[in-house]
Each structure stands twice: as C-alpha cells, then as structure tokens.
Design goal:
The structure holds two protein chains of two kinds. Chain A is mainly β. Chain A contains no helices and eleven strands. In chain A, strands 2, 4, 5, 9, 10 and 11 form a six-stranded mixed β-sheet that branches. By secondary structure, chain B is mostly beta strands. Helix content of chain B is 0%, strand content 54%. Classes of the chains: A mainly beta, B mainly beta.
C-alpha cells in the first residue's frame, strides 16, 4: 500500500531548465510537506501546504485538495538543486513518498 | 538552538545485541517521531509521541521500543538487533499550530548496521 506516490523517480535536467515533481496521495490529510534530502543525508523541510500555492525563491509548491495532488516546481534550476525531493502528507500520522532524485547538470 | 540531535551517527551491532538510539530537541516541540529509511522504500514511521508520557506505534514498530519521559528526549531502543534492522534512522520533531502539525525538523540520522 502506497499512501503517497511521487513521479518521476529520477530526473536529470540541464542547468536553467524548469522542473516539475508530482505527488499524489490517497489518504485524508491536514497538510502536505515537501522535503529536500541532500547527498550528505540531511533532511530539511521546504514547504508545508494545506491549500493553494507557496513560493520560496525559485521553488514553488501547489496543492489541489480535491484531486489529492501536489506539484513542486523549480525555476531556473541550478546544480546545487541536485538532491532527493520527498513528498509527505499528514493525516493521523505522517506518510512519505519514496522521493524523486534530481540531478542538474551544468 | 541545537535543533534535533541524534547519537550515535554510526553504529555496528551483532545480531541479538541491544542498544538505544538517542534523540533530543530543544525547541519545546510536543511531537517527536522515529523513522527508518531504506533504499527504494522512503521514510517509514516506527513510533511517535505527541507529548511526554504519550507514545504510539507507527507503520513498522516491531523490534523497537520508545519512551517519552520528558518533552526534550525520545530514545529508540532496539531490543534484540536483527540484520533486517540495518537502516538509516531519523528522529524528527514538530509543533502544533491551529490544530495542525507544522514542518518537521529532522536530526542528522544514525546509520546502523547489524551483522
């Protein structure tokens, strides 16, 4: 059973490209989170969403509650964006997607 | 603030040994949780706590015990280590605002190998 599905699993982009990572979930949620895990292993929270859209610098996250879907966009991608991006949802507990591994080539 | 700290960073155990992974946070967060991360499977919840004295099981609790005697500390005990418990373990904490848990703060992780 996968409460959270992400696509694609792997993504390679040229520097400067616009990137989209998708997340679909099957449980009722109070919030959705996007996390970033760098090659060193540390995990940081990028966004928490319960509706609409949020923007931090070149990162944009959107959520459609009715369709149970969220997207993470990276504009003007840079090699330092290379990381694993993880979607997580919180209903009665946290559920995580398996992550999208992004590599941005200079 | 130190945030969420975990010790040790690396550990090698023999099958059958027991040990405790330590987790502490200094942000006065009521919610704390333990996850394991295995290749291709994402993070899976082991146990969580919504406050001192309150713990509950997550998705994969077998072989692990927790306790929460203070707000700051949430240790994870492996009772009798097995090779299937070889994994990277993350501790995280969060806080409630307007009835919803907010962003989680993760510790640096503990890489455990059971031989």
């Amino acid at each position: 059973k996968n409460e959270v599905e992400q696509s694609p699993q792997n993504l390679t982009a040229q520097e400067g490209e616009f990137i989209t990572i998708n997340c679909s979930y099957s449980v009722g949620i109070s919030a959705l989170h996007w996390l970033q895990q760098h090659p060193g292993g540390g995990i940081v929270s990028l966004f928490m969403l319960s509706s609409g859209k949020k923007k931090h610098g070149r990162l944009i996250a959107t959520i459609n509650i009715q369709e149970k879907h969220s997207s993470l966009h990276i504009t003007a991608s840079h090699p330092r964006d290379s990381a694993v991006y993880i979607c997580a949802v919180h209903g009665n507990q946290f559920y995580f997607g398996t992550g999208t591994s992004l590599t941005v080539i200079p | 603030n130190a945030g969420v700290t975990q010790t040790p960073k690396f550990q090698v155990l023999k099958t059958g040994q027991s040990m405790t992974l330590q987790c502490a946070q200094d942000m006065n967060h009521e919610y704390m949780s333990w996850y394991r991360q295995d290749p291709g499977m994402g993070l899976r919840l082991i146990h969580y706590s919504v406050g001192a004295g309150i713990t509950d099981q997550g998705e994969v609790p077998n072989g692990y015990n927790v306790s929460r005697s203070t707000t700051e500390d949430f240790p994870l005990r492996l009772l009798s280590a097995a090779p299937s418990q070889t994994s990277v373990y993350f501790c995280a904490s969060s806080y409630r605002l307007a009835g919803t848990y907010n962003e989680q703060f993760f510790g640096p992780g503990t890489r455990l190998t059971v031989l």
